[in-house]
Amino acid sequence: MDNRKKMSVIIKRLRKEYPVLRSALNYRESFELLVATILSAQTTDVHVNKVTVPLFKKYKTIRDFADAPLDQLRKDVCSVKLFQQQGKKHTGFCKDDQGEIRDAGYRRPWRNS
After folding, report:
1. What's the rounded Cα separation, in Å, for the pair 72 and 33?
2. pLDDT tens across the length of the chain (113 residues)
3. For residue 101, what are the β-bridge partners?
4. Three-class SS of residue 64?
5. Which residue ranges form the domains of the chain, and what is each CATH number?
6. Is 48:36 a contact under the CB 8 Å cutoff?
7. Which of 71, 70, 62, 52 is nearest to 95 (CA)?
8. In whole angstroms, what is the distance from residue 37 CA to residue 56 CA?
9. Residue of 70, 109, 67 lying closest to 89 (CA atoms)
10. Distance CA 79, CA 91 (A)
């Protein structure tokens, strides 16, 4: 059996075993999933979902995160462990190596439904 056929068999088995995959994190846009995932590295998904409700109301786009003052962003996520580092991570992922906002690359490649 060649590699393509093996891969096809594996994918079929995985889809049968895991038909519906859903994240425990709440999000609407892919950049929100990224933010929630970064936060969840230091706390529970339940706590992250509580923190992200007001966070995603305040910062509606990736540009909002990129333009947020670091001190304010830290205050917004201060209930999460290591929040000092979280603020840096959230402003950092918003920009590419040239400092440009990553708007185009973070538009709904995933759905949480």
Report:
1. 20
2. 788 899 999 999 988 888 877 788 998 888 888 888 888 887 888 989 999 999 999 999 888 888 888 888 888 887 776 544 555 555 555 555 555 555 544 443 434 44
3. 95
4. helix
5. 30-106 (1.10.340.30)
6. yes
7. 62
8. 14
9. 70
10. 18
